[in-house]
């Protein structure tokens, strides 16, 4: 049997993902609505409306016009990327010099909770996550606290998966809900911003025509406190996690 020390780093981390996924499927410590895991999107949605999260589990999600338009815009942005398997994704994270991974599930275990998250996009450079990216299509021009919490939580969980997050930023790109911009233009914004980051860069705001992009330096301790607070609050109130 091959010792894990002989395996390349991507294989070790990929195997760990499979292990967590297997444990999650067998998890009998069910949460409300028989969930075996916590979706990060539900944690962040509680900032907006906890009751709405509960109703979504009871009655299903309701597609508003704004939500449908936003989903359509997300799909257009992702057209620039090539679909790959989970195994290929983990291999390329560590073998491709600069690799953008989009809409890929990550599985983590934290304080006896199984957590699942799916970033809009992560830019990896030589196996190190450099920018967590979230696209928002909205009539508002500034990010909400829930957007920060989502990306902070995703960044913290990447650290729990063994990634070096010492140089990590997160980026919130907000475009008008009916933005008349081609998908390639939107898709290239993270790359353009990454090339502008310097050693002293902290928080910055960039404008690309009618699109606003907000870059923030990731803070691990802030993210940890936020996640712990939301997990404790959600579980104590019996919310669907």
- Global Rg: 18 Å
Number of distinct helices: 8
The best one-word shape is globular
Structural class: alpha+beta
**CATH topology value:** Lambda Exonuclease, Chain A
Please describe the biggest sheet, giving its number of strands, its sense, and whether it closes into a barrel: 6 strands, mixed
The averaged pLDDT comes out at: 82
What is the quaternary state of this protein? Answer: single chain
What are the low-pLDDT stretches, counting only 5+ consecutive residues below 50? 51-60, 235-241
Quickly count the domains.
1
Helices and strands, in N-to-C order? HEHHHHEEEEEHEHEEH
Known CATH architecture: Alpha-Beta Complex
What's the count of strands?
Answer: 9
Straight-line N-to-C gap: 39 Å
Mind telling me the CATH class?
A: Alpha Beta
């Amino acid at each position: 049997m091959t010792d894990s020390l002989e395996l390349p780093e991507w294989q070790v981390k990929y195997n760990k993902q499979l292990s967590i996924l297997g444990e999650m499927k067998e998890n009998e410590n069910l949460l409300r609505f028989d969930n075996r895991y916590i979706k990060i999107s539900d944690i962040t949605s509680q900032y907006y409306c906890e009751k709405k999260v509960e109703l979504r589990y009871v009655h299903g999600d309701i597609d508003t016009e704004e939500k449908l338009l936003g989903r359509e815009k997300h799909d257009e942005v992702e057209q620039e990327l090539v679909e790959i398997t989970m195994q290929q994704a983990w291999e390329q994270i560590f073998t491709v010099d600069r690799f953008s991974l989009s809409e890929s599930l990550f599985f983590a275990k934290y304080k006896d909770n199984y957590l699942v998250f799916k970033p809009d996009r992560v830019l990896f450079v030589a196996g190190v996550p450099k920018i967590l990216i979230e696209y928002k299509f909205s009539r508002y021009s500034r990010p909400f606290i829930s957007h920060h919490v989502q990306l902070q939580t995703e960044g913290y969980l990447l650290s729990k998966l063994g990634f070096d997050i010492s140089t990590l930023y997160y980026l919130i790109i907000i475009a008008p809900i009916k933005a008349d911009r081609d998908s390639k233009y939107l898709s290239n914004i993270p790359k353009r911003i990454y090339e502008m980051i310097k050693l002293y860069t902290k928080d910055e705001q960039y404008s690309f025509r009618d699109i606003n992009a907000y870059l923030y330096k990731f803070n691990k301790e802030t993210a940890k406190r936020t996640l712990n607070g939301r997990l404790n609050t959600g579980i104590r109130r019996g919310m669907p996690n």
